[in-house]
Structures are given as structure tokens and as C-alpha cells.
Design brief:
It is a single chain. Helix content is 12%, strand content 39%. The chain contains seven helices and 34 strands. Mean pLDDT is 84; it is low at 1-16 and 386-434.
């Protein structure tokens, strides 16, 4: 029988770290093909060198005869950005979940998501190396047999692995330097072509854990630190027009915004305090497009994460008035990962409680205009939320975990399977509010000034019909009636009356009393 483990990391301020990890602040990595060099950049711009992590003060771990586990892997392809799951074991189970009442022409299958995950793993394992160096004179102590990684030892103080999870055994006074390197074969399009590389933008995660043993099966596993890391390859100008070059080694992205398939989800409304109601308006998006191929490389704008932000205007509809009454507005949305199909939950917006009443009908009108500046306005709107969330989700671009895992074990300990404790970090339940979760999922994008780029045009899914960037390229309208209020849950029951989509670039429609999409699971 295979081992099945399910773990949820619950935030706890009382967990004493077995080791400390000094993080270098938020940064991302980009491969400059022109310069054949790996470039690191942070919110302030391009860095002179690749930042280094340091794990130190591991005496408690050494005294407890425990191991430091260092894990590096890509993000899974899931149906909602409410939960960020990262894969470190290279195994991926089919949960059986699917999108009910899907608005898309074709639902993404498990096999398609699995293929995307394998392609990301192929990129990380073929191109990136994680270097771990013991700073002290005693040398690096580590198990010869590593169930979760392939590694090579360099001298007595250093080891290098390329994805998965590796263990080292701290001694009193041990400290470790951890950094990233890019293999030479991945610094040119020719090398990427030889590797049959199909990805250009990968969201990864570097995690540190304390583990009771180095078997890959320990239930004594505690998270110490987690660091999101985005890795991109500059666009091939034969296939995708690159964004404007602002200097040598500046990371580049697609210059044209290829409009994703975007639909509105069912709004949610909940009383969140004295005279305040939070409105949630999820988007359902598909970031896919046609690719072009040349010299063994295929690439398209959907190979890159794209901002998906709209300006939401909130109206009251009253038959006695000739026009809808404007109430308020805000920017909403998130980031669509490459080939992502699913829900973008958004961060929500709080309104005075007198702006929503049972029995009345309201309208949410969402306009999509300039992808870059809409994203900037979105960042400005939620920036006020960041200070009060610092202690729970870390700085934007960083996320310290102070957690105690809950583990359920079924079956016998035979081999390392897909273990969610090793595969990812789930922020669910009451451990974080929905706003906190959404912002946590965006933390690797919010602070960087070099992304999104200044887009030249907005194009349809095929990329053959483009409009000026200032055009109102998409408008979504949803009318809903507030049916009732649940006193116990403090939530409003909402009936969607009509949904409209108007665009020059994607099909328009009008749907009366539509069945709204949601994620359905067999459990």
C-alpha cells in the first residue's frame, strides 16, 4: 500500500523555529538570451548579482538530531488562485475536481494540467541548480541516499541539486549558504531548443523545513520559511514581440497583451464589521493562445503570466429611475499564470452596509482598459491593506511561515509518494481571511516595477486582430438581486439576473439567469 499524507499548514505565532533563514528580500530571475546571462531583479530594478539565502542558528535542530530539508519546485496548475500549491515531489494526483457550469469552450483536463507541471519540472531540473554550502570548517554532513533529489557533492563543504528536496544534517554551529545557478545550456535559444523546452515563465518556491529524518516519509515535518521565486526567459523576437528594452540585462516580457478569455463569477457579499460589507467578485479566466514556432522553439504570449485587472463600478438598479445610480468603484482581479484555466478570486472591496439591501437589484460593471495601468491602480488600492497583514503573510514578495502541521497518515510507509506536506503550502480555513489569501497569492508580483511591461497593443486570442492599448477592449456586466440575509453566517444570498460581455476581440454574449461556474469536487 502506498503512503497517503495530507497536511495543512496553520499559521501560529507560537512555533519556535528550529533554524533561522535570512532571506534577501523579494526578487525574481530572468534569462537574458542576448547577454547569455541570468539576471536578478527586485522592486528597485536589476541587481548586480544573484541574491543568497542563509540558514543559521540551527543548534536546536542539531541537538534534536533532526535534518534541514531544502525544497525547490514549481507551482501546480489548479482551478483557483485562492490556494497556492507548489510541487516538490514530482508526483501529482487527480483530485477529481472540475469546473461545473464552465464558461470555457473546453475544460482543461487533468492530463493537460499534468503535462504543464511536467514541462515546468523539465525546465527547473534541466536549467536551474540549487547550491548549498556549509560555512563552517567541519564540512557538509548529509545522507548519501536522497529520496527526493539528485545531487552532486563539490568538495567537503558544498552540494548542488536541481529541484525536489534534499536533506543536510546540521551540527552545533552549522550555517548554510543557498543560492541559484543557471546551466550554460539554458542561456541560448539553441540550447533550449535542444532540450525541447516549452516554458518561458515559471512560478517556483524555495522552502526550508525541519524534518525528523531524511526518509521523505517523516511525519515530524515543520515549515521554517518559504520564498516565492519567478523565473522567466526573454521572448524570442522571431516569435513574440518583446517589450521595450530599458537597458542591458533588463528583463523583457511580451509587448502585446493577448486578451485572455475572461468571464464574471458569482458575487459574494458578507458583513465584515460594524456597518461594513465585503463584496467579492471572482473572475473566471483562461490564459491560452496560439503559439508560433521557429528553429525548434515555440512561444506565445500565453507562455507568460498576464495581469487581469478590471475597473469595477457598482450601481443600484431601480425601475423608478431612468438611469442606474452609481454607488462606488474599485479595481479587482489578479494574475493569470501561463495556460491557467480557472478562478481568479480577487481581493474584494468593503462598502458601507447601506449600499446593499435585501430585495434590491444591483449592477457590477467591469471595464478592462490598459493592462499595465489598471494593475498599478489595483496595487495602489490594496497597498493600504499590506501593513496590517505583515505579521501574517510576511512582506510582499516574502512569506515567513510560523506553522505547526496537522498530519493524517493512512497506509504503510513504503516509498515517497505525492505528499501534500512536501508538495505545497495551503492557506485555507480560518488561518487567513480571504483578502489575506488573495494578496498572499499575488505577493510575488505586486512590488515589481519592471512587470507588467508597457504594452503596445491588445490582441485577440489568435494574435491577428490588435487594437490600441487605450481602447476599452472588454466590458463585463452582471446584474444581481439580493434575495436574503443569513444572520448566523452574516452573508447575503445573491441571485444573478443577467450577465453581459461586450468586446471587439472576444465573442460577446447576453445570458439571462445563468448557471454560474463553481469548482465541484467528489468529497
Amino acid at each position: 500500500m502506498k503512503l497517503l499524507m495530507f497536511m495543512t499548514f496553520l499559521l501560529s505565532s507560537s512555533f519556535a523555529l528550529a533554524c533561522e533563514v535570512s532571506e534577501p528580500g523579494s526578487f525574481a530571475l530572468s534569462t537574458s538570451i542576448l547577454e547569455k546571462q541570468l539576471v536578478a531583479y527586485n522592486p528597485g530594478g536589476v541587481l548586480q548579482e544573484i541574491p543568497i539565502f542563509r540558514a543559521f542558528n540551527c543548534n536546536k535542530m542539531a541537538l534534536g538530531n533532526k535534518y534541514l530539508m531544502i525544497a525547490f519546485g514549481p507551482q501546480n496548475q489548479e482551478f483557483s488562485d485562492r490556494v497556492g500549491i507548489f510541487n516538490f515531489s514530482q508526483e501529482y494526483r487527480d483530485s477529481g475536481c472540475f469546473i461545473e457550469n464552465s464558461p470555457f469552450k473546453k475544460n482543461q483536463t487533468f492530463d493537460e494540467r499534468l503535462t504543464l507541471l511536467k514541462e515546468r519540472w523539465h525546465y527547473l531540473k534541466s536549467c536551474y541548480e540549487v547550491e548549498v554550502e556549509e560555512e563552517g570548517p567541519i564540512g557538509l554532513s548529509m545522507p548519501d541516499v536522497q529520496p527526493g533529489c539528485s545531487y552532486r557533492k563539490v568538495g567537503k563543504n558544498k552540494m548542488i541539486f536541481n529541484g525536489g528536496y534534499c536533506y543536510v544534517k546540521p551540527s552545533i554551529g552549522s550555517s548554510y549558504l543557498v543560492n541559484f545557478r543557471l546551466k550554460e545550456q539554458c542561456k541560448s535559444y539553441e540550447g533550449l531548443s535542444n532540450l525541447k523546452m516549452n516554458v518561458s515563465d515559471v512560478q517556483g518556491m524555495l522552502n526550508f523545513y525541519s524534518s525528523g529524518d531524511a526518509s521523505g516519509q517523516s511525519i515530524d515535518l515543520n515549515a521554517i520559511s518559504t520564498f516565492p521565486l519567478r523565473m522567466t526567459v526573454s521572448p524570442n523576437d522571431k516569435l513574440v514581440k518583446p517589450s521595450e528594452d530599458f537597458g542591458i540585462l533588463t528583463p523583457q516580457f511580451p509587448a502585446n497583451y493577448q486578451i485572455p478569455d475572461i468571464h464574471l463569477g458569482k458575487p459574494e457579499a458578507k458583513n465584515v464589521g460594524s456597518n461594513r460589507v465585503q463584496i467579492k467578485l471572482p473572475f473566471w479566466v483562461e490564459n491560452s493562445c496560439t503559439k508560433k514556432c521557429a528553429d525548434g522553439i515555440c512561444q506565445g504570449t500565453c507562455d507568460y503570466a498576464q495581469p487581469m485587472i478590471g475597473n469595477v463600478e457598482y450601481f443600484e438598479l431601480n425601475p423608478a429611475r431612468p438611469k442606474p445610480e452609481f454607488l462606488t468603484s474599485w479595481y479587482e482581479g489578479g494574475v493569470g499564470q501561463p495556460f491557467y484555466q480557472g478562478e481568479i478570486f480577487g481581493t474584494g472591496f468593503e462598502i458601507p452596509s447601506d449600499l446593499i439591501e435585501v430585495g434590491k437589484t444591483y449592477r457590477l460593471e467591469v471595464g478592462f482598459n490598459d493592462p499595465k495601468f489598471d494593475f498599478e491602480r489595483f496595487k495602489n488600492r490594496i497597498s493600504g491593506k499590506i501593513p496590517r497583514m505583515q505579521q501574517r503573510i510576511g512582506e510582499i514578495g516574502r512569506a515567513q511561515i510560523r506553522t505547526i502541521p496537522e498530519t493524517n497518515q493512512i497506509g504503510e510507509l513504503e516509498k515517497i509518494p505525492f505528499i501534500e506536506s512536501i508538495s505545497g503550502i495551503n492557506f485555507i480555513g480560518d488561518s487567513m481571511s480571504s483578502i489575506d489569501r488573495a494578496v498572499a497569492g499575488l505577493r510575488n508580483y505586486l512590488s515589481f516595477k519592471l512587470w507588467p511591461p508597457y504594452y503596445d497593443k491588445v490582441c485577440n486570442g489568435e494574435g491577428n486582430d490588435c487594437h490600441g492599448i487605450k481602447d476599452d477592449y472588454l466590458k463585463l456586466v452582471l446584474d444581481f438581486k439580493v434575495a436574503s440575509f443569513n444572520e448566523d453566517e452574516r452573508t447575503f444570498a445573491i441571485d444573478v439576473v443577467k450577465v453581459t460581455r461586450t468586446s471587439k476581440l472576444v465573442p460577446s454574449y447576453v445570458k439571462e439567469h445563468p448557471a454560474m461556474p463553481f469548482i465541484k469536487c467528489p468529497f
